[in-house]
Design brief:
It is a single chain. This protein is mainly β and 277 residues long. It folds into 2 domains: 99 residues, Peptidoglycan hydrolase domains (Immunoglobulin-like); 166 residues, Glucose Permease (Domain IIA) (Distorted Sandwich). The chain is 13% helix and 37% strand. It contains 3 helices and 19 strands. β9 and β10 form a beta hairpin. The longest helix has 18 residues.
Length: 277
């Protein structure tokens, strides 16, 4: 048997995934291996962390020489009851591939009414959207070292969670992409703070998201803040958890003032609720 596979199976015998997750609950997100969720995979001991990939995307690894874990974001488009596979490259060259069984989760549907021009785009707006999408795809692929701080995020502004992650969204009767974040209902001008310590990697006015900021927290963990009325930080600026970065607004495609808060892992959006108290 492959030595790394033996170590991995030994880790499972010592304690179940649920027990491991419970011990680490103060610093790790809640494990939920479903489309749009997060899988926490025990990797075993080593003097140095392994390099982990899901397909072509680098995956976060946390822990110490006694026990490393991979923190894997699962894309919303992943088929229910399917299996993903991560590749693990160990410093000693003893590599391994591990399966991640993906469960099922059904998300609700939400119908919204917005300005017609925000659903059926003009050629000019369509070209703008395509440019912005290409840019954001590149930004979302950011993977920096090391992890800046804890994986326990703070809610970036007060307010009710008015629209949950994964909602199947219908705009003016037309189906569109599922909701890729969490909406927090708050009055325009409410202060927005950084959910964790990090660095500002993008700031701009986007067609759908309006005024938007993206923060990099290390190892592929990014947070996004959209529809802002004000952006109070610049690209490249480092911020601490709880530092003011902007204000709630109603810019972009919205039905009212609120903050759209997103969390990304290995370049895919995942449920922010898994990271919040």
């Amino acid at each position: 048997m492959n030595r790394r596979l033996f170590l991995y199976l030994s880790a499972l015998l010592v304690g179940s995934l649920s027990k491991i997750t419970k011990v680490l609950a103060r610093v790790l997100p809640k494990a939920s291996a479903v489309p749009g969720g997060v899988a926490i995979v025990p990797l075993g001991p080593s003097g140095h962390p392994p390099v982990v990939h899901l397909a072509e995307k680098r995956v976060m690894v946390v822990g110490d020489e006694k026990r490393w874990q991979a923190i894997v974001g699962i894309a919303l488009a992943t088929k229910e009851n399917s299996t993903l596979r991560i590749s693990i490259e160990w410093p000693d060259g003893d590599d391994l591939t591990l399966p991640i069984p993906v469960g099922s989760k059904r998300y609700a549907t939400q119908e919204l009414t917005v300005k017609p021009g925000q659903v059926n785009l003009s050629e000019k707006n369509l070209q703008r959207y395509r440019r912005e999408s290409a840019h954001l795809k590149r930004i979302r692929g950011t993977f920096s070292m090391p992890l800046v701080g804890s994986l326990a995020l703070m809610q970036p502004c007060p307010g009710k969670r008015s629209s949950s992650f994964g909602l199947r969204r219908v705009f003016n009767g037309q189906s569109r992409n599922p909701h890729s974040g969490m909406d927090l209902a708050a009055p325009e001008g409410t202060s927005v703070v950084a959910a964790a310590a990090g660095r500002v990697i993008d700031r701009g006015d986007y067609f759908f998201s309006g005024n938007m900021l993206l923060l990099d927290h290390g190892q592929g963990l990014l947070t996004l803040y959209a529809h802002l009325s004000a952006m109070d930080v610049e690209v490249g600026e480092r911020v601490e958890q709880g530092s003011p970065i902007g204000k709630v607004g109603a810019t972009g495609r919205v039905t009212g003032a609120h903050l759209h808060f997103g969390v990304y892992l290995n370049a895919v959006p995942v449920d922010p609720a898994l990271f919040l108290a």
